Amino acid sequence: MAATDIARQVGEGCRTVPLAGHVGFDSLPDQLVNKSVTQGFCFNILCVGETGLGKSTLMDTLFNTKFEGEPATHTQPGVQLRSNTYDLQESNVGLKLTIVSTVGFGDQINKEDSYKPIVEFIDAQFEAYLQEELKIRRVLHAYHDSRIHVCLYFIAPTGHSLKSLDLVTMKKLDSKVNIIPIIAKSDAISKSELTKFKIKITSELVSNGVQIYQFPTDDESVAEINGTMNAHLPFAVIGSTEELKIGNKMMKARQYPWGTVQVENEAHCDFVKLREMLIRVNMEDLREQTHSRHYELYRRCKLEEMGFKDTDPDSKPFSLQETYEAKRNEFLGELQKKEEEMRQMFVQRVKEKEAELKEAEKELHEKFDRLKKLHQDEKKKLEDKKKSLDDEVNAFKQRKTAAELLQSQGSQAGGSQTLKRDKEKKNNPWLCTE
């Protein structure tokens, strides 16, 4: 019999019976509380907003401490997410708080893709948790959960309407994280302008289909206060770490030439409402919504991409082993197909390379033959020229020899005539007087 059938029968046949005395399982809530306090809690906040809206100051004010961090500038080339984790202690409850800030958000001329690094960061945290969950040996109780539990979206106090960047970003994030919109530095506009601005923001969010986080009203203990606070969204907040003496008390406030704005005065801003809703009343619900709604949606999509389903086409429970085997066979088939394609491609490329090499070899042979013939022609020309020069040299030598012979003969003839004339003078002295 299938396990689901057994569970169904057990559920249908369950009876309520009275106890004759005290058993002790009524201490389970206390056990759970003690275990949770021992393990501690984690809470991760994503602060999204343009540079200079007071995100860091508001975090310091919310948790009544001074978090370390470098001030951001307006010269960032793109959006970068900076994550810092802190260990906080209140009474005997420990909280591992992670604050993620979007450095450079809205500072670029082209803001079209400003939301992408934020979406990729949120998905990366979901993926890390999913990989830990799918391990054979899991240590989820010791795993640091880095999934974003709430996104505080800071809206500039323009008093007019939401920027297109704000609408696009919140639309991309609403299915991945709990969004609580807040109007930063709300003391920059008047009360009447602030009221109209809130109405305008709510109207634009609804008309554009942006789903923001609604405080739960299904729990009777918090239904009334959550229902009231849902009507105050978005919260108009002010942050300050400076304390001023007002009356006989030191309070967090901001001093202006025209007066003092008290951070914790609900007549001045909604900071107290935000702190109550975010930390004291709904922190656990935000954690639960992140796990049961946003993470489950991501997990379901990823597993469906991997081929896993709850039921087969016959509406029967789907076997994980069968799914794994089917996916494995499919993967092996695709792998073999790719291997065959790569082999065919390799053979084709080898053939093409061989043809290119043969063509290159043919061209080299033709070039060699041309050079050889050219060399032979040049050699023949040189030989002919050499022969011609040799003939000219021989002819020159013959002419030279003939000239030397004629010169020597002429010299001998001239010498004999002189001797003959001298002899005649000697024999006939009268020739000398003449």
Automatic annotation (TrEMBL):
MF GO annotations: GTP binding
Give residue spans, biased composition: Low complexity.
Answer: 407-417
**Which residues does the UniProt record annotate as the domain Septin-type G?**
39-305
The cross-references to InterPro entries, in alphabetical order and at most eight, read:
G_SEPTIN_dom, P-loop_NTPase, Septin
Q: Name one Pfam family in it.
A: Septin
The record's keywords, sorted A to Z, are: Cell projection, Coiled coil, Cytoplasm, Cytoskeleton, GTP-binding, Nucleotide-binding
Localization recorded for this chain is:
Cell projection; Cytoplasm, Cytoskeleton
Query: What Gene Ontology cellular-component terms does the record carry?
Result: cell projection; cytoskeleton
**Region Disordered: start-end pairs:** 404-434
Which spans of this chain does the record mark as coiled coil?
321-399
- Name the SUPFAM superfamilies for this protein: P-loop containing nucleoside triphosphate hydrolases
Say which family it is in: Belongs to the TRAFAC class TrmE-Era-EngA-EngB-Septin-like GTPase superfamily. Septin GTPase family.
Subunit-level organization: Septins polymerize into heterooligomeric protein complexes that form filaments.
> Which purpose does this protein serve, as stated in its record?
Filament-forming cytoskeletal GTPase.
**Stated name of the protein:** Septin
Species of provenance: Suricata suricatta (Meerkat)
